[in-house]
Design goal:
The chain is of the alpha+beta class. Helices cover 37% and strands 20% of the residues. The chain has helices at 11-19, 58-69, 79-85, 88-93, 109-124; strands at 4-5, 24-30, 38-39, 44-45, 49-55, 99-105. The strands form two sheets. The chain has a four-stranded antiparallel β-sheet with strand order 1-6-2-5. 31% of the residues are buried.
Length: 134
């Protein structure tokens, strides 16, 4: 699975080249070279998954995600970024420079996201830490 580094200036071009206007599910993880594990209720997530979300267009939704997480922007247009920036401990343990996304193309992003979240919750006993709990 290809990693798109959030802090990379060429991220948009890479996503556009490989996925164009397609959508699906994006998974925010930490640890570009070596995953930074995320301790969960039932086990440690060794892939470093912080968030799972859906997008009708990867380019549009990932743009919102990047702006909301980036230290250069004050955008609150994505709930994941708002949660990421809400506690200094989060971005100390999971630094911006180490964040990346994986993209999973899907004709039905809602169902694909739901399935991935259900599988994650079944395995770890809770949702990824930056996903909404309700």
């Amino acid at each position: 699975m290809i990693k798109f580094k959030i802090s990379s200036e060429s991220m948009w071009h890479e996503i556009n080249e490989l996925h164009g206007e397609s959508g699906g599910v994006y998974i925010l993880r930490c640890g570009v070279e070596t995953p930074i594990p995320v301790n969960r209720l039932l086990a440690s997530d060794e892939e470093g998954t912080l968030y799972i979300g859906k997008a009708n267009s990867f380019l549009n939704r990932v743009a919102e995600l990047k702006k909301s997480i980036s230290p250069q922007y004050k955008s609150g247009s994505h709930e994941c970024g708002t949660r990421y920036k809400s506690h200094s401990g989060i971005y100390k343990v999971y630094p911006y420079e180490e964040l990346y996304i994986n993209l999973v193309e899907s004709d039905d992003p809602r169902t694909t996201e739901s399935n991935l979240l259900q599988n994650y919750e079944k395995k770890f006993g809770e949702l990824p830490p930056l996903n909404r709990v309700s």
